[in-house]
Amino acid sequence: MRSSTRVVLTAFALVSVATGCKPLDDGMVLIFGRSMRDSRSFDPYENPLMPPEGSVAFASGNSSALASDVNLGQPEGGNEPYFTQANMFPIGTGDAAVASMENPFSLDDERALARGQVMYERTCVVCHGPQGIGTGANIFEKYPALAAYNLAGPQVAGYSDQYIYGMIRVGRGLMPAYGHQIRPIDRWAVVTYVRKLQADAGQGGEE
Ligand code: HEC
User: Fold this and answer.
1) How confident is the model at residue 207 (pLDDT cuts 50, 70, 90)?
2) What are phi and psi of 36, to 5 degrees?
3) What is the dihedral of CA 127, 132, 134, 135, to 10 degrees?
4) What whole-number distance in Å separates Cα of residue 52 and Cα of residue 176?
């Protein structure tokens, strides 16, 4: 009796080791058409999807100050002044910290607008919507306090290019910072694209 129990247990163990989870797994494949058995393995931080052709790597914001410099991982390049959210006050006009910078693009720069659109649609569109006016209907009539959220509205149209640039880099309140994701030159492209959205919405803007 004891030895027959042992035989049964040994046989069960052998069958389990030999087949593993396969019968269960096969059942899953039958039901769902795929199984975790078939998943590829990835290294930590490996991006399993190939980036679209012509795309800029995620770490593009991390450019060195000069072409000849070793990149030490600083997010900013060039002679951009150091500033944080604390320097971006008062709201909408507090651009003293960034005033020394200049937007190299104008509204008739097609290439800058195209680049700005790519970056805008990659980063800003989820919250500000394709036209800069958010995604909800009449949201600004319902909630006038959200005027700053309306990138194509009169409030943001009145901001300086520098202030919008600073906002992209350091953010404020519910508006996240994107300095780590959008490199300096692309921030100007986004600023210029925001100006275009304002022009499309009938706001004069600064240009
Ligand atoms: C996660 C959502 C979200 C994303 C993504 C986002 N924003 Fe905002 N943004 C907001 C909100 C919410 C406000 C309103 C903040 C407030 O009123 O305090 C805002 C405000 C702003 C303002 C006005 C700031 C001020 O001081 O009045 C600007 C300019 C702006 N966003 C530009 C951008 C740009 C450009 C991008 C893309 C790089 C972007 N935002 C991405 C949510 C977002």
Assistant:
1) very low
2) -65, -20
3) -90
4) 25
Query: Two tokens at 85?
Result: 């959210």
Taking the C-alpha atoms of residue 26 and residue 34, their distance in angstroms, rounded to an integer, is 9
With contact defined as beta carbons under 8 Å apart, do 144 and 152 qualify? no
pLDDT grade, residue 61 (50/70/90)? very low
CB 72 within 8 A of CB 194: no
| 51 — pLDDT class (breaks 50, 70, 90) | low
Distance 118 CA to ligand 1 centre (A): 17
Q: 122, 149, 162, 192: which to mutate for ligand 1, most atoms within 8 A of CB?
A: 149
- Both tokens of 59, joined, read 């770490």
Question: What tokens were used for 170?
Answer: 């350091």
> Whose Cα sits closest to atom 2 in ligand 1?
127
> Is 39 or 137 the better-scoring residue by pLDDT?
39
CA-nearest of 87, 61, 62 to 162 is 87
Residue 3 has what pLDDT?
Answer: 79
